[in-house]
Amino acid sequence: MAGSWVESGKKSDFSISNIPFGIISNDKNHLHxxxxxxxxxxxxxxxxxxxxxxxELKPSDALLSSLNQVTLNDFATLGRPVHRTVRxxxxxxxxxxxxxxxVLRDSSVLREKVLFPLSSVKNHLPMxxxxxxxxxxxxxxxxTVGSLFRGPDNALQPNYHHLPVGYHGRASSVVVxxxxxxxxxxxxxxxxxxxxxxxxxxxxxxxxxxxxxxxFVGKGNAMGKPVSxxxxxxxxxxxVLMNDWSARDIQTWEYxxxxxxxxxxxxxTISPWIVLADALNPYMTTxxxxxxxxxxxxxxxxxxxxxxxxxxxxxxxxxxPTTTISRTSGRNLMWSFAQMIAHHTVxxxxxxxxxxxxxxxxxxxxxxDRGSLLEMSKGGKTPFKLSDGSERVFLKDNDSINIxxxxxxxxxxxxxxxxxxxxxxxxxx
Amino acid sequence: MAGSWVESGKKSDFSISNIPFGIISNDKNHLHxxxxxxxxxxxxxxxxxxxxxxxELKPSDALLSSLNQVTLNDFATLGRPVHRTVRxxxxxxxxxxxxxxxVLRDSSVLREKVLFPLSSVKNHLPMxxxxxxxxxxxxxxxxTVGSLFRGPDNALQPNYHHLPVGYHGRASSVVVxxxxxxxxxxxxxxxxxxxxxxxxxxxxxxxxxxxxxxxFVGKGNAMGKPVSxxxxxxxxxxxVLMNDWSARDIQTWEYxxxxxxxxxxxxxTISPWIVLADALNPYMTTxxxxxxxxxxxxxxxxxxxxxxxxxxxxxxxxxxPTTTISRTSGRNLMWSFAQMIAHHTVxxxxxxxxxxxxxxxxxxxxxxDRGSLLEMSKGGKTPFKLSDGSERVFLKDNDSINIxxxxxxxxxxxxxxxxxxxxxxxxxx
Lengths: 429, 429
Description:
The structure is a homodimer. By secondary structure, the first copy, chain A, is an alpha+beta fold. Chain A has helices at about 45-50, 60-65, 75, 80-95, 110-115, 140-150, 230, 250-255, 275-280, 335-345, 375; strands at about 20-25, 30-40, 40-45, 115, 120-125, 130-135, 165-170, 175, 180, 185-190, 200-205, 205-210, 210-215, 235-245, 245, 270, 275, 285, 305, 310-315, 325-330, 355-360, 385, 390, 400-405, 415-425.
């Protein structure tokens, strides 16, 4: 594909091959509204639609209404054929070599009204999130963390290769990239060997990240109506990067027998721009092999469990240079999102537009490709170095984490997520 | 308190001391709208407000707007002082001995418009539920079930007496009383001793109930701003009964290490009428004693952990008489809802109006006061008898469960929940 007349010379995650959707506001207009990102600009879709920008598409009332909302839930609900048509149309409008009458390229007045520098807008949560579910599909992460706690022979539970293990997370504390979070305080068992066991109340000392990919549900399913693996792709609106911040010391004490709770629910950060399923699906690839024969409802093409996706984690102290502490790959997943959806719904659970499904931590098996500090520091025992020579085991106050991810090349084929970033403020008091 | 001029002679959960809030529609008006229940009638609050019924109260615009919504979220957000004022006003309107100008009692035209027989209305979910959290505060249940799996010496995990253990549940599958549910299908490990372990895909054979009390959050808290035990009561809008249906065979296989998932997310039933905090709080009482010294943020008056609340569970096969299979008490709780809220928010997690917090299963320690069939059948091993002589271990297809609960006496002081009922349909195919 040729480039866009909007793209700058700089390499951008938001090439014309991408066209990710988000919710923005800016100084001139505080109303939250849909937009797409292109190069180092955003196109305000509400303004563009109001100016008749979609006229050539003969848009339905439902589509126009969906672009007039403060979240993308209505747009997501319209279904993948509509998303496909709208994305293609916007690509036409933005293409260097477009042949269609182009009200945007040819009108400086309209460009002024609806095309803003990316740096001038504020991103908001793109969807109203109904339920958030987090899976555990990164087998290398599950194995390494399991080994730390139970040894390599018992690292994975017997169910691990038979079903995509997942749990219900907290939707209310999902925040958009750039939101600062306070270090959580909670119950911690400082000395597990002391009898009787007496937890203390303190700020987490083992504050961690989890690098994840997540999908947003577009089309829902009715209660009692499971979605098959084959149907599932029609239910996926698009993808974001996610940082599932985790307080390991709170988690260790609280998580038996019902799973993680306060160790996770103080905040989960997602990237603001939703990369549509059509943009990312070409990069589906073979993930981590699962040799276990699967029940029929979970059978999937092994070439569709991973993504040919570069993933990086940057850590930046308050002052001091940024260090890329991990470079890993979307190939490090053993279950596809379609399998997660099939499993989630097989007992009848309804998914709704705006539901968020996380992959679980994406890690490789080497020192430099881990998705959590728990792995990088070998269970909190071995510090790793930052580029200024300082060390980390877990996060310090005022550390910022920035997760980045992209597929494709460096030019007009690049499909990236931008930033999923957050700073840890001192503990709440 | 004297009775209401509306109450029938029959004993009713919805006496003038109660005034529970719900969302209704009826044949004449399909719009979902707020109402209260009184005796065997409901008062349509939208219609009543539109007719100027609240004029004497000098209602705020926010109050009038909240009565014009399809859920009670806006009303809940107004806060307990407003709920108190509105409930008292409605009690005045309905009281036998009221002195105030009474447009409802004195106008048959208005009564016809806004006062309907309970049997003529349809109840809907009273709140849009953002997040649903389920706790585990019924110590007797936790102990008995833990004993079944790990023996009495290891029944309770070391954290149990230090914090109200809870997990995030699934909000999208919370349904209102009267909604039928299909038996879920899922992965089940029929023979845990076989090597290698091979799950099968089948309909749950160990389908259970969990009798719970739940609270709805009214006032939320900002992210990073914990709510103390003392403040927590201002955040509680009111209470409902809950049946947390559970597929034990699915649960056993799936729940390690992240907690229950498909075993629970196929459906959770709540009673339709929210008993306001002001109506139920007079029945707070001493619950199950906790001898463990608590961290300061969880310290609570031991007289406020339980409720003087009668709870009963009825089982009715498709044909055949109804059997009351359990009679238990709201005293069987070891953590107060205020403690649950304090713990839930202590790390900074935000609660929002409409969030639902379940108590966990409420059981006694005797054969006839259990809140789950797992306990009644001693781990599924000992059938219990129904009144027609038939037996149950877990639920059969077309069994209906009806949970009831009430505080106070039998007349004008009774504060009850009505029904929390549901029928299990054959497995989805």
